[in-house]
Automatic annotation (TrEMBL):
It catalyses: (R)-glycerate + NADP(+) = 3-hydroxypyruvate + NADPH + H(+); glycolate + NADP(+) = glyoxylate + NADPH + H(+); (R)-glycerate + NAD(+) = 3-hydroxypyruvate + NADH + H(+). Residues 109-288 form the D-isomer specific 2-hydroxyacid dehydrogenase NAD-binding domain. Residues 6-319 form the D-isomer specific 2-hydroxyacid dehydrogenase catalytic domain. Keywords: Oxidoreductase. Gene3D superfamilies: NAD(P)-binding Rossmann-like Domain. This is Glyoxylate/hydroxypyruvate reductase B. One of its GO terms (cellular component) is cytosol. One of its GO terms (molecular function) is NAD binding. It comes from the Bacteria. Belongs to the D-isomer specific 2-hydroxyacid dehydrogenase family. GhrB subfamily. It comes from Paenibacillus montaniterrae. The keyword Oxidoreductase applies. SUPFAM superfamilies: Formate/glycerate dehydrogenase catalytic domain-like (SSF52283), NAD(P)-binding Rossmann-fold domains (SSF51735). Its EC number is 1.1.1.79, 1.1.1.81.
């Protein structure tokens, strides 16, 4: 008999077709309210759960899903996994690394360029009818090329950002990560710096660590105070890696020049959030990996992870902390 799996999002047709060959799919009914109660009801019989990361996989959820064996997340980040709760129940937790690196790195560069050349702000300037033609320096920005980029969290996506910086924009690139990466330093012209050194010397600072207990609030008031006044800060990791109040203060007081943000403590961001009033902030609604091609590949990889894990195959992207 095919295993029962719950799928919490609409799938591309070919991915749905692939899953249906190996599993019996249950999913939300059209127009059904997506309550936690309904989800737990669906999960009560499921052996597999295909999720996009909106639900915490914690004790409460797992207690309501006694038959669950595999949680396949269509995301590379897995901060929604309570790793201890999953480990205690021998749940296999999988994610979708590598295939989204270039797409997320493109967005990081988009945010860097938009902040430094004020693209979003000046688009509003034209639409508001403010363009007179005699603005002079008023509309000038900062160069990206030949400046210094500091990457905090030099993993798969960090490396894709470094490539663009080195080979497309002739930037100098340094990084800070949990440990130094000698192999990477041989392969690419990047150098390791302490976090404090990187913050003090970079024109652009890009945050790309996973959200873990160690990275929660990693960048706060002290870290913003070390940055240069013209520095531009980009966060494409998770909202909680940054102390948002400290970021708002750093921007309001001119401690740093701008910020490009794809992720927030609260998503969707409420309309009355202070970021909305800051012209030097460029925001995107958590769309780092959101292109048709990449989301299609992520969906297929998540489906394959789910099927392979249920079938006991080792061809599965299990998150590092849950590997045997
Ligand atoms: N904005 C988006 O849509 C989007 C898309 C994809 C990924 N992400 C985020 O980006 C993160 C990184 O993805 P990846 O595939 O590059 O992961 P990765 O595991 O390849 O790289 C993570 C890097 O962070 C470093 N790191 C981990 N803990 C650290 C710590 N305490 N201090 C300093 N460095 C630390 C690691 O050493 C590694 O270099 C994901 O976990 C996710 O949160 C966001
Ligand atoms: O981690 C990821 O893959 C993205 O943030 C989408 O959730």
């Amino acid at each position: 008999m095919k295993p029962l799996v719950f799928v919490d999002r609409r799938l591309p047709e070919d991915v749905k077709h692939y899953l249906e060959q190996h599993c019996t799919i249950i999913t939300w009914k059209p127009d059904e309210a997506r309550s936690e109660q309904a989800l737990l009801h669906y999960l009560s019989e499921a052996e597999g759960y295909f999720t996009s990361g909106s639900m915490k996989i914690n004790d409460a959820l797992l207690d309501a899903a006694p038959k669950l064996k595999v949680v396949s997340s269509m995301s590379v980040g897995y901060n929604h996994f309570d790793l201890a709760a999953m480990k205690a129940r021998h749940i296999i937790g999988t994610h979708t690394p590598y295939i989204l690196d270039d797409t997320v790195a493109d967005l990081v560069f988009g945010l860097m360029l938009s902040c430094s050349r004020r693209i979003a702000e000046l688009d509003r300037y034209i639409r508001n009818g403010q363009w007179q033609g005699n603005e002079g320096r008023k509309l000038f920005g900062l160069d990206v090329h030949h400046r210094k980029l500091g990457i905090i969290g030099m993993g798969r996506i960090g490396e894709a950002v470094a490539k663009r910086a080195l080979y497309g924009f002739d930037m100098k690139v340094s990084y800070y990560a949990r440990s130094r990466k000698p192999e990477l330093e041989q392969r690419m012209d990047v150098s390791y710096e302490s976090l404090d050194q990187l913050l003090a010397s970079s024109d652009f600072i890009v945050l790309l660590t996973p959200l873990t207990p160690a990275t929660k609030g990693l960048i706060g008031a002290e870290q913003f105070s070390r940055m240069q006044q013209h520095a531009i800060f980009i966060n494409a990791s998770r909202g909680a890696t940054v102390d948002e109040q400290a970021l708002i203060e750093a921007l309001q007081t001119g401690k740093i020049a701008g910020a490009g943000l794809d992720v927030f403590m609260q998503e969707p961001l409420p309309l009355d959030h202070p970021f909305m009033k800051l012209d030097q902030v460029v925001m995107t609604p958590h769309i780092g990996s959101a292109t048709d091609a990449t989301r299609q590949q992520m969906a297929m990889l998540a489906a394959r992870n789910l099927v392979n894990a249920l079938q006991g195959s080792e061809d599965v992207h299990i998150v590092p902390e849950l590997r045997q």
